[in-house]
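Our preliminary data section would be incomplete without showing what the modeling component actually yields. Below, a chain of 205 amino acids is followed by its predicted structure, encoded as tokens that our downstream tools consume directly.
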Amino acid sequence: MPSITEVDNIKSLDDSGQTSILTKTGTGAGGDKVFTLDNVTLGSSAVFPSGHILGIAQLQQQETAGNSGGSAVATTFTASVLNDEVFDTGGFVTLNSNQFILLAGTYLISAKKACYRVGVFTIRLYDVTNTAYIDPAGTNAYNPSDSGATKNLFSTLNTKITCSGDTTYELRYYSAEARSGNGLGSAHGQTLEVYTEVMIYKIQP
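Predicted structure:
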């Protein structure tokens, strides 16, 4: 009987008649075979090795060429616009009205948001379901409001979260100064404008 390293596909049939397929999809370090399981439901006790990514999602605020990122509201944390789910390889995120809902699991989140001539500027992740901010806050993207500021700056944020069930989040920003029209990013006018981005990496179910 061949060993698992000598075949490309292994099929099995469970009691319900569902076919599961183990397919060789590549070769890892040292020549180890890499296999992918299709049509398999994992139990809640399944544990994955640390450092493995189970899925990646990208959310953005996208505007057509020439349109700015919007007006900045001063001195209060305000929800950021997120209007496009670029991809979701794990099927774990739902985007709705600038909020995103994550299924149960552990995630790494990396976010960034543009600002233009608004002074002190930062971002924070807010847990809408549990009414709590997630630490740490983002970096300070100090962008002076005087005429010497000529480009967008970005506040960036990196954090790890664990959800016990469906949980809703917002990316919020704080601006020291209000600025109408382009306080949340000045347009370059060349192609698609992207002012906010949230990258989500699922690392545990």
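The chain has two domains: 4-38, 55-204. Residues 55-204 form a domain with the Jelly Rolls fold (CATH 2.60.120.40). Preliminary results of this kind motivate Aim 1 of the renewal.
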